[in-house]
Amino acid sequence: MTGPSEQRIRCVGAVVFDDAGRLLLVRRAHEPGRGRWSIPGGRVEVGETDAHAVIREVAEETGLAVEITRLLGNVQRRAPGAAVFDIYDYRCRVIGGTLRPGDDADDARWCDPQILATLPIVTGLVDALTHWHCLPPPPRHGDISGC
């Protein structure tokens, strides 16, 4: 997907579950993905580490405080022009805060598999979460140990 003339834009995402095994999603208020649901995340600012960016983005978009537990993986997505979003997604757990949409999210919610199946999701998210074994479990199983 990348070539020598393509600008790479470092981004991060947070894969967060509540105690019931529901996935945290935000509805994007701006492009890319305006009106579609995704995990919280965004661009890493100059001089910022991935960890700081994840914590900042989750707080800004959801009102929640998180800590990173591990790197899940990396994906690339086309950005405007000849750029590429180079996205690193991290498994996180909530350590505080109150869920509320903010910053560039116009909604935020916990999603079980039934709700997830009804939402317009950003391109590639379900594929990445499936690959990393991080989709919300069916209600009876409650095991997200693969993620």
Task: Name a few traits of the molecule.
147 residues; alpha+beta; 16% helix; 38% strand; four-stranded mixed beta sheet; three-stranded antiparallel beta sheet; Nucleoside Triphosphate Pyrophosphohydrolase
From the 3D structure, determine the CATH topology.
Answer: Nucleoside Triphosphate Pyrophosphohydrolase
Strand order of the largest sheet: 4-1-6-5
- State the fourth-level CATH superfamily: Nucleoside Triphosphate Pyrophosphohydrolase
Give the SSE order as H and E letters: EEEEHEEEHH
Q: Give the total of domains.
A: 1
For the largest beta-sheet, the strand count, sense and barrel status come to: 4 strands, mixed
Termini separation comes to 26 Å
Radius of gyration using CA atoms only: 15 Å
Strand segment tally: 7
Strand content: 35-45%
Structural class: alpha+beta
The backbone outline, from C-alpha atoms, is: globular
Poorly predicted regions are none
What percentage of residues falls in helices of 4 or more residues?
10-25%
CATH architecture descriptor text: Alpha-Beta Complex
Q: What value does the average pLDDT take? A: 90
The CATH first-level class comes to: Alpha Beta
| Helix count, DSSP H or I runs of 4 or more residues | 3
Gist?
The protein is an alpha+beta fold. It is 16% helix and 38% strand.
Explain this structure.
Strand 5 and strand 6 form a beta hairpin. The longest helix is centred in the middle third of the chain and has 13 residues, at 50-62. A 4-stranded mixed beta sheet has the order 4-1-6-5, covered by helices on one side. A 3-stranded antiparallel beta sheet has the order 3-2-7. It starts with 7 loop residues before the first strand and ends in a 16-residue tail after the last helix. It has 147 residues and is α+β, with helices and mostly antiparallel strands. It has helices spanning 50-62, 113-116, 125-131, and strands at 8-16, 23-28, 37-38, 41-43, 64-78, 84-97, 105-111. 16% of the residues lie in helices and 38% in strands. It has one domain (8-131): Nucleoside Triphosphate Pyrophosphohydrolase. The model has no long low-confidence stretch (mean pLDDT 90).
